[in-house]
Amino acid sequence: MAKAPRGWSVRSRLLIIALLPMLILMPLLIGITMQRWLWRTDQILAARVASDLTVAQQYLAHLIDSTGRQVAAFGQSAEFRDHAADDISDFLAANRRELGLDYLLLLDASGRPLTPADAQPTLPVGTGITLLDASTLTALSPQLAERARIPLIATPASAPDGREAETRGMVIHTTSPVSLPDGDTALLAGGVLLNNNTGFTDRINELVYPTADSNMQRAVAGGFDHGVTTLFLDDTRIATTLRPSGDTRAIGTRASAEVRDQVLIQGGSWHDTAFVVSEWYISAYEAIADMNGARVGMLYTGIPKAPYAAARKVTWAITGGAFLAAVLLALPLFLHWARGIFRPLEAMGRTISRVELGDMNARTLTAPPPGPDEILRLARHLDRLLDLLQQRDRDLRGLNANLNKRVEERTADLTRVNTALEAATRQLVLSEKLATIGEVTAGVAHEINNPLAVIQGNLEVVGMVLADHGGNAATELALIDEQIRRIGALVNQLLQFARPEEFDHGPDTDPAQVAQGLRPLVQHLLNGIELQTNIHSTRHVRMNIHELQQILVNLAVNAIQAMPHGGTIFLSCKDARSEDGRDGVALTLRDTGTGMDKATLARIFDPFFTTRGTSGTGLGLSICQTLVNRHAGKMFAQSTPGQGTAFSVWLPAESPA
Residue 645's pLDDT is what? Predict the structure, then answer.
């Protein structure tokens, strides 16, 4: 019959059902929630930067408007109207400083200066942002031209530019019609140069990022509100609060080529992450148009991305740590509850297995606990079904007995067949008993061979000593007597194997003493073989001395037979603990013989398996393992072909009184 495919156990399925939400669905939900929250945070940061840029634009518009109002108000003032025309230049220069302007002069209707002391640059008419070249700035004031000049600094990701410096000036320029003292009309022109105008960007930064200090340094360590405000002429920073190296502002550095193309060339805006000088910023760029509507620069606000990225990692770490902590705290509780489910199920499984083997008295709950637990109710129901099944089985057996009796009484032929069948059954049982007795007898015979070999060897020694020297043979005779006693112990073990419950374990044994006494037992077999011992055990074990002696002799004889050309046997005996923490003694016998391959090593403890052909019974190691297992010990072997074999025996120590 084909073997049914093995499926998932109830325990496995319950564990999967319980752990699936915790270990898979919960992390997935947390991950989606965290990602959604972080995405929303990025949106908020982008919106905030865009809002900051709006504030900066409003401030720039306010500055342009206030500059125009100041110049217009000054031109309409009584002081200006009543002032003599002969010293107008000095008067304008004095009031320029009071108005906070970089230049203040009179122009004709075409935009050329009226004062003869001034040079003759042509200035635009109107109010707004304008660009003045180096010659115009020099004509207005050499100091303005010098202040406007900004050396260009090579910047990663910027567009190639062959210039070494930016000499143009970005100016807030305004003109206002005025009446001169002589009755003529003119234009009063004033302006503020924005190149290297740190007060302009610092004031915007104070409005946008009020948490920054007065020196526009980064905010308190660990904070996030250390944003940057920058004014660009074309793609060159001419005024900024950005200090990438600490104290020096990044004036002269340039915007990335990607931002320049989108804002200045295509006329769009930038609201995204951008590479700023040396790191990534959450950025917002908008173009600045001059009085003619041409895009001449950009206004920028941004905050560094690194603190938020670090905070994101910390958030993930905290969330992951909290989840792991919750899992570690919840799993033991869950497993504790799960055991309450698994134990009754496993008990029912064991009960059904025992019933399948014929034990109709098997029950799951010998003392049913009270409670509404569904699984316990199922176990009680199973026990009731087994009671009913047992009763039905007894009834069927009774009916069957009556039926057999009636058939035997009425049918003589069937009676004879039944008698023959019973005879055959008895013969089969007898054959099985004989086979069992033969197996045990073979084992006993195998074990008797070793003492008889020792007796024979010592008798030969006695013969040689008595023949050559006539010395005292008391030692050998005592050894012979000891081996005869061992034969009696082996016979007793035959009975013990048959009825182990009728025999106790016998006295405790000192493994060190047995190991020390191994050499005389196998001395006659050590032809060209050296026996080395390393004995340090201090505990006694709960095993008969003859059983332990039998195990060591078997292992030693096997090792000797594995070294036909000589070698070394290493015997060690020391105190050791088992894997489950029990105290005991470990004995290891290792040889330098031929070793065994994996296939042979896997079968060495099987009854009747031997590698010596007809010269061995294959029961030695099987009996040794049986003896070790009977005393709750462990026995295993390790072997490498060509390098030898090591047998290890661990026996539990005697229980303290």
Answer: 94
SS3 357: coil
The share of the chain scoring above pLDDT 70, in percent, equals 75
Q: Mind listing the pLDDT tens digit for each residue in 568-588?
A: 999 999 999 988 889 999 999
Q: Determine which of 228-242, 356-370, 421-435, 602-616 has the lowest per-residue pLDDT on average.
A: 421-435
Full 3-state SS string of 217-251: CCCCCCCCCCCEEEEEECCEEEEECCCCCCCCCCC
Per-residue confidence (pLDDT) for residue 296, from 0 to 100: 92
Q: Which domain holds residue 633?
A: 504-657
Q: Which of 80-84, 313-317, 601-605 has the lowest mean pLDDT?
A: 80-84
Same domain, yes or no: 513 and 456: no
Top mean pLDDT of 66-80, 417-431, 609-623 is at 66-80
Q: List, for residues 167-184, the tens digit of each pLDDT value.
A: 999 999 999 898 876 677
- Asked if residues 254 and 156 have their Cβ atoms less than 8 Å apart, the reply is no
Average predicted confidence (pLDDT) for the chain: 78
Q: What's the rounded Cα separation, in Å, for the pair 355 and 349?
A: 10
Q: Residue written as tokens 């405000």?
A: 229
- Mean pLDDT comparison of 22-26, 91-95, 243-247, highest-scoring range: 91-95
Token pair for 556 = 């030693």
Do 645 and 595 meet the contact criterion of CB atoms below 8 Å apart? yes
Which pLDDT value is given to residue 47?
Answer: 83
Distance CA 560, CA 649 (A): 18
Do 119 and 249 lie in one domain? The reply is yes
Question: Rounded distance, CA 502 to CA 552, Å?
Answer: 25
Whether residues 80 and 34 fall in one domain: yes
What 3 state SS string does 400-432 have? HHHHHHHHHHHCHHHHHHHHHHHHHHHHHHHHH
Mark whether 61 and 141 lie in a shared domain: yes
In Å, how far are 162, 255, 316, 579, 598 from 263, measured between CA atoms?
A: 21, 11, 35, 73, 76
402 within some domain? no
The residue type at 367:
A
Whether residue 483 contacts residue 553, with contact meaning beta carbons closer than 8 Å, is answered with: no
539 and 460, same domain (yes or no): no
Cβ pair 595, 641 in contact under 8 A: yes
Average pLDDT over residues 302-313: 82
User: In 23-164, where does DSSP find H-type helix?
Assistant: 26-75, 78-82, 88-99, 134-140, 142-148
The widest CA-to-CA distance across the chain, in whole angstroms, is 163
Report the range of poorest mean pLDDT among 20-29, 295-304, 499-508.
Answer: 499-508
- Give the chain's end-to-end CA distance (angstroms, integer): 55
Residues 378 and 526 in one domain: no
What CA–CA distances, in Å, run from 384 to 263, 363, 497?
Answer: 86, 9, 39
Tally the domains of the chain: 4
10 Å CB burial of residue 32 (0-12, 13-18, 19+) is exposed
The model's pTM is 0.48
Phi-psi region of 288 (alpha: psi -120 to 50; beta: other; left: phi over 0): beta
Torsion angle, alpha carbons of 331, 337, 338, 344, to 10:
160
For 491-494, the CB contacts below 8 A with 24+ separation are 491/444, 493/444, 493/447, 493/546, 493/547, 494/440, 494/444
Distances (CA, A) of 313 to 48, 283, 602: 21, 21, 53
Structure confidence at residue 341 as a pLDDT band (50, 70, 90):
low
Q: Collapsing DSSP states into helix, strand and coil, what is residue 117?
A: coil
Alpha-carbon dihedral sign for residues 629, 634, 640, 645 = negative
Give the Å distances, CA to CA, from 224 to 243, 330, 529: 16, 36, 81
